[in-house]
Design brief:
alpha/beta; six-stranded mixed sheet; 6 helices
Amino acid sequence: MDVLELKNYITTNYTSTTLNQCSEDDDKNEYLVQNRAIAVFDFDKIKEKESLDRCFPKNVSLTSPDTVVFNNRNEIILIEFKNSFSSDVKKFAVRVKFYETLILLKHRFGFVDLDKLTYILVHKGPKKKSKPHHRSIQGRCPADLSILKHEYPVSVKVYDAKYFDSNCYGILGKALQDV
C-alpha cells in the first residue's frame, strides 16, 4: 500500500478529529496544541482497531503515536504529543512507539513508502533554569531520536509545543483536509 491508498483507507474507515483533541493529556486535562482547524486522525484508535481486528492476536498490545496526518505533498506525518519537559521525555519509549508503528504499517497495511514518512515528537519545551546534561548508555544517548533515521529513510523532528502550535501549517504542509 502506498501513501494515497493508506490515506483513502483511513479517511474512508475513520472519523477525523483535530490536532487540539489529539494533543490532550487526559490525566491533566490539558492540551499541548490549540489548533482546531487541521483535521487529523487519532492513530491510537486506528491502532487499536486494526491490530485487534486484522493483524495481531488479542494478547498483543502495540504502542503508537497519537496522530496521523496526510499532507498535500503525499506524505504521512505521525505525531507523538508528550506533556512533559523535553528532558523528562523518555525517548526510548518514543522510539519503541515508532518501531511498533512500522510493524503495524507494514504487516497490516503492507505500507512501503517509508521515505514519505515523518515522525514528530511535540513536548512542553525545556525546564526553566535546568542545566543541560548528556549521558550515554553503552555509547548511545538514550535521548537521541536520530537513530530512527539510521535504519529507515524517514524524517524525524522534535518541537516544543508553543513553536509547533504557532507554526503547524508550515511544519505539516497545508493539511489535505481542514475541518
